[in-house]
Amino acid sequence: MDTMRDRFAPVVSRLLDEDPRVAVVLAEIGKDGFAEAVRRHPDRVVNVGIREQLLVGAAAGLALTGMRPVVHTFASFLVERPFEQVKLDLGHQDAGAVLVSAAASYDWPAGGYTHMAPGDVALLDTLDGWTVHVPGHPDEAETLLRHAVAAGDDKVYVRLSVQANAGGRPVDGESFLPVRQGRSGVVVAVGPLLDAVLDATEGMDLTVLYATTVRPFDGAALRRATGTAGTDVVLVEPYLAGTSAGAVNEALSDVPHRVLGLGVGRRELRRYGRVEEHAAAHGLDARSLRERIGNFLGQGR
């Protein structure tokens, strides 16, 4: 199976052909995928070099002229390093762009912590008006990329990962998708962690909601699910643990409820290893998830 990032350049290259507003802004990373697009659209594929602050600033400038910029590099260089530009050049100026990241939380362990960004979604949560897509399969990534580019002049973040579920699901860029129905609690599985959650909760009387668009948070879907499954909620997110706990609390503010936030821990793992080993170390493999979810629900009885 190809990866989400394998889909990125071909999809956006087609969007360059289809829509004269679309522009691509790169900072060296990913430029080879746009070699043909540069030949066809030399004025709309911009490589600023290894200058991530300029990457975002140039995108904002394009947006202010009426373009729809698609901006790409590793998550740590796209959200964390140029955060001031994301905050001011895009947010303060109300300029829209589509930020598309790669490497996610720990997709490239050999790159070390400089190339990991488990706090990216939490950091964007400090800003207003961002839509955040977290696809769990390359097919979903393609759909959500198209949604993002077509979203007027909105500010959109698309978080790509080498981790993926075995199959894609019909995503609409807005809603949580009910995958399993139960009566003893609700698990919200985000993006590429759905398969692990389904394995972990096999045989458990739980509702599982699949989230690929996490901002805005689909509080209405969560409220519907808790109406039949109870108000114990487990979040399983492929980034910083508890990132969406506040959104759950807001959605259920008028009813007693409990929330368990599972995700990437704050402790830095100072070893390379494999992606699967990092997932297990953070308790995001199916075995660990089953134990942690089971313990949480058992404490509520």
Question: What can you see in these coordinates?
Answer:
With 301 residues, the chain is α/β, with parallel strands linked by helices. It folds into 2 domains: 4-159, Rossmann fold (3-Layer(aba) Sandwich); 177-299, Rossmann fold (3-Layer(aba) Sandwich), CATH 3.40.50. Helix content is 38%, strand content 21%. The strands form 2 sheets. The protein has a 7-stranded mixed β-sheet, sandwiched between helices. The chain has a 5-stranded mixed β-sheet with strand order 7-9-8-11-12, with helices on both faces. Helix 10 links the parallel strand 11 (232-240) and strand 12 (258-264). The chain is globular.
In short:
The chain is α/β, with parallel strands linked by helices and 301 residues long. The protein folds into two domains: 4-159, Rossmann fold (3-Layer(aba) Sandwich); 177-299, Rossmann fold.
Furnish the topology, listing elements before pairings:
Blueprint lengths: L3 H15 L3 E5 L8 H6 L4 E3 L4 H13 L3 E7 H6 L2 H10 L4 E6 L17 H5 L5 E4 L4 H13 L4 E5 L17 E4 L5 E5 L3 H7 L6 E5 L1 E3 L3 H11 L2 E9 L4 H7 L6 E7 L10 H7 L4 H14 L2
Structural features:
301 residues, alpha/beta, Rossmann fold, 2 domains, seven-stranded mixed sheet, five-stranded mixed sheet, globular
The CATH architecture classification of the largest domain is 3-Layer(aba) Sandwich
Q: C-alpha Rg, in Å?
A: 19 Å
Tell me the CATH superfamily of the largest domain. Thiamin diphosphate (ThDP)-binding fold, Pyr/PP domains
Number of domains: 2
Number of strands: 12
Which segments are poorly predicted (pLDDT under 50) over 5 or more consecutive residues? none
Strand content: 15-25%
Helix content: 25-40%
Order of helices and strands: HEHEHEHHEHEHEEEHEEHEHEHH
Gross morphology is: globular
Reported for the largest beta sheet, the result is: 7 strands, mixed
Q: On the 0-100 scale, what is the average pLDDT?
A: 96
Q: Numbering strands along the chain, what is their spatial order in the largest sheet?
A: 2-1-3-4-6-5-10
CATH topology name of the largest domain: Rossmann fold
Quaternary organisation: single chain
